[in-house]
Structure formats: C-alpha cells, structure tokens
Write a structure and sequence with these properties.
478 residues; five-stranded parallel sheet; alpha/beta; Trp Operon Repressor, Chain A; binds S-adenosylmethionine; seven-stranded mixed sheet
Length: 478
C-alpha cells in the first residue's frame, strides 16, 4: 500500500515512518510512506501557505493553491481516496481502519492553523475523519494515528496473522485481561485457568472476561454485541441456509445495517460485500437504499432480489420508478449475476484425517503458480489471499501440485489440483487440512459451490459437509 501525507511539517512524520511495526513494513516493501511538504508547492516567493479568512475571525487558513498542487502532484488528479483529518469528521473506528486497509493508495491531508480553504477540500477530499472530540494544533498526529491503525492491518505487517482477530473492537468486544511472567507479582497470582493448558476453557474464560469488561466500560459497544448475538441465535434456526451470515457475524466481520424480523442486511467492510435476505420484494426494495455505495458484491438469499439489484427492480408496478430514495435508484442495475451457489457446511467438531503430508502455507514465491491456475478473481485477489496467510499448497517431492484457500468473505475455496495428481486424494487432503485450520479458530467451515458442479458436491459430501436446501446468488458490480 502507498500512503502520501500532505503536511506543513514533514519532519514530524520521519521518525514514525522508520520505527517499530510500521518501519519494518516499509523495510519489507509492504508499505510505502511519503511525507509531502505542502510548503514546497507554494507559488509565493516567501513560500507563504496561509492567509486571513474572509469575513474575519481568529487565526489563519491554509490556502487552496499549494494544497491542491501537492495533492495533484501525488495523485495525478485521479480518484485516490483522500482523507482530511479534521475534528469535524466522522469518528475514526477500527471498522474504518479495516476498510481503509483495503485500499492500494491513500492520501492523508493534514490541516494547520484554523484549517484549510473549503474550496480545495471540495475538490480533493473523499473522507472527513476525526480522532476524537478535541482540537489539536495540526493534523500530523491524527494522520499518524490512522496510518498506524490501518498499517498494522495490512496482511504481512503483523507477524502473527491472528493477533488482530483477538483484539479490542473485534466482534464489538474489548480485549480480555492478559498476564505475563512471573506467575505471582505483588502477591497477585495469574488466574489458574491460564496455567491449565486447557485451550477450550481458556477461550471461554477470555470471552467471559471480554463480555464483562465491555458491559462495564463500554455499554454502547456491548449493546451492539448483544444484538449481534441475538441475530446469530435467530439465524441458527436455519443454519444451513444462513451459514454465510452466521459466520460473518461470529467472526466479527459483518455489521448489521438493517434487521427487522426476516429482513436482514449485513455489510462486511473488509471485503466490501453485502449479504441480504428479504421476506418480500417490498422489504428488499426498502433495504436497497442502505447498501453502501462502494459495495462490490452482494450475496442475495432470494431470487427476486436479483431483479432488484440487476435492473428492472427499480420500477414500480406502474413503471414509474417505485418511489425509492435516490441512493436506491443509483444502486440497482449496477450489479450482475455472477453465480448461483449452494452452501456446504461442516458442523462436526472433530478434525479430519489428512493423508497427504506435505501441505504448507503459501508465500509470495508461489503467487505466479497460483494466479496462473486460478483465473476467476485475478492476480491481485490471489495476492491478497496469500498475504492474509490463508492459502495452502500441496507438494510432491518439492514440486507444488495444488492449492486451497479461504475467500475474502470467509468461505473455503480456490481449490485446484494438477491434472496428473487428481484422484490421488490430494484435493481431499487439502480440503481436510483447510477444514482443520478453520476448526482451530473455533469457526464453522463452509463453502459455496456453483450449482451444476456435481464433482465438487460429491467431494464435499463425502467429507461430511452437508448442503443447504436453498441457493444463494452472488451479484457482482458491473
Ligand atoms: N478550526 C478548526 C475547527 O474548529 O474545526 C480546527 C483547526 S485545528 C487547530 C488544525 C488542524 O488540526 C485541523 O485542520 C485538522 O487537520 C487537525 N485536527 C485537530 N484536531 C483534530 C481531531 N480531533 N481529529 C483530526 N484532526 C484534527
């Protein structure tokens, strides 16, 4: 990821760019960070960048021209996501960090003095974001805060790929208390359960502590957590048909954008995907205007939703446009049907035997191999999967002969085995291996198989996965 910071004080960022995790990510080439000196773009002979505000008032304002020229120089005037850090923005959250971490390039614009001329903000800024309800002298600290939170979520930056999954705000809970050596300090003993070696009990204890802590310190967050649990409980009554929603909620990925009875709209910001289920056409139509504009994919649970998303659904019965709000009218007819799938899920808790022994986590060294053989979603998709640490390969005498992975929304897939090695049990081993990895995280493994792919259904069913009785439709932005 490339990040440019437009600032009057580039020296404030230098140390930060070189230190700790962020510094290491820069060294590894995962992150590239540039502090751009806005003053260098001033056309004034004294390099002045500020002036008095029209209409009077305290302080000075950063002028439009140097800010615009600096921005244009780094973006080429193109559509690069540009964040103005400002106390007037929406509050920065972990979810927003996750969403920004998906971008390939970002610009942070730091204000100073009393802020920046409104006209240049209108021409450059895509997001107005605040780090809290207080006023700082400049935008450099807020930009560093956001870069730090975003940077550590980029696959490959944190050493341990699951550490971000257990932290505060994951799943709307604060993190549980943690202890390190020595076992007794100031007469305080580490809780016995943490020394027991019983991982199931440890997980239960941690969850309970997280819940208690969140209810006490952040009742607002805890209310969100409870609502999520309530929805999971309801969906569990029809688990096989709603496993995609259940797992997305459980894994702390989906936000509930709407839920009333059987009408549900979820949004996974990390993979910019919505999941929708509607009791009737009218309810589906009402939810359309809640779909975030940047949504790339929609998983629809009922066939009539396809029509709403892919075109003709924006007309009312009289063909008049149905009276939707403009956002809804904009959303529909921007999607097309990509595939109709059945969901398959593995509900047992016991790991499966893995016959083929040489299965390993893939690295960038295998990117060419995988992307040449997996053509559905493009090279950058495969690259992101490898970076996220969710792709595994099967090897025979050191040569790669197949692979499997987890899709961006959490389903198992991307399975491939070389022609010459098919019917040798390698696909089965890869699948079992992936199922076991998923079980270790306490998740229910599931996959989406395109209707008609009988070979894949047969393999999955032989392994103990069972099939949904209804299908879902994957809709992709045109
Ligand atoms: N006059 C501005 C107002 O009332 O909104 C405040 C300007 S502040 C002194 C100068 C700059 O610091 C802002 O333009 C912004 O870039 C940055 N800044 C200050 N507080 C911030 C916060 N809480 N979150 C993000 N940026 C902030």
């Amino acid at each position: 990821m490339k990040i440019h910071v437009l600032t009057l004080f580039p020296e404030m960022l230098k140390e930060f760019f070189q230190s700790s995790m962020i510094g290491r990510a820069v060294q590894k080439g995962i992150l590239s960070l540039h502090a751009v000196d806005v003053r260098g773009y001033s056309l004034d002979k004294h390099k002045k960048v500020d002036d008095y505000p029209y209409g009077g008032g305290a302080g000075m304002l950063m002028q439009a021209q140097p800010v615009f020229d600096a921005w244009k120089d780094v973006t080429g005037g193109g559509r690069v996501r540009t964040v103005y850090v400002t106390p007037q923005g929406i509050p920065f959250t972990q979810r927003m960090a996750e969403e920004l971490a998906k971008e390939e390039e970002l610009v942070f614009l730091c204000g100073h003095y009393e802020g920046i001329d409104q006209r240049v903000l209108e021409e450059t800024v895509t997001d107005y974001v605040s780090i809290g309800d207080y006023v700082l002298t400049g935008g450099e600290l807020p930009a560093m805060v956001m870069i730090d939170a975003v940077g550590r979520l980029i696959p490959g930056v944190l050493g341990n790929d699951s550490s971000a999954e257990e932290e505060s705000f994951y799943n709307d809970l604060l993190e549980y208390p943690q202890y390190s050596r020595p076992e007794i300090w100031h007469d305080k003993k580490v809780p016995d359960v943490l020394l027991s070696g019983d991982h199931r009990k440890i997980s239960q204890w941690r969850l309970e502590q997280s819940r208690r802590r969140t209810a006490q310190i952040r009742p607002d967050l805890y209310a969100k957590y409870e609502r999520r649990q309530e929805l999971i409980g309801r969906l569990m009554k029809d688990k096989r048909n709603y496993i995609h929603m259940i797992e997305s909620l459980r894994r702390g990925r989906a936000e509930i954008l709407f839920w009333e009875g059987d009408d549900i709209l979820l949004y996974d910001r990390r993979c910019v995907t919505c999941m929708i289920s509607a009791s009737c056409r009218e309810a589906g139509r009402r939810m359309l205007d809640l779909i975030p504009g940047e949504t790339r994919s929609v998983v629809a649970s009922q066939a009539f939703l396809n029509e709403l998303f892919c075109g003709s659904g924006h007309s009312g019965a009289d063909g008049s446009g149905g009276g939707e709000v403009p956002e809804a009218a904009r959303i529909c007819s921007q999607f097309e049907i990509h595939s109709e799938c059945s969901q398959l899920l593995y509900t047992q808790k016991t790991p499966l035997p893995v016959q083929h022994k040489d299965i390993r986590l893939l690295t960038m060294d295998q990117l060419d191999y995988v992307s040449e053989r997996y053509s559905y979603d493009g090279r950058s998709y495969v690259e992101a999967r490898i970076r996220e640490g969710v792709m595994y390969g099967a090897f025979v005498e050191g040569e790669q002969v197949g692979f499997i992975g987890m899709h961006s929304e959490g389903s198992l897939g991307l399975l491939y085995v070389e022609e010459a090695y098919r019917r040798h049990g390698i696909a089965r081993s890869l699948e079992a291996y992936m199922i076991n990895r998923t079980l270790e995280k306490g998740w229910t493994p599931y996959g989406h198989v395109m209707v008609g792919n009988e070979g894949s259904f047969a393999l999955q069913e032989k392994m103990g996965l069972y099939r949904s009785d209804r299908t879902v439709w994957w809709l992709e932005r045109k």
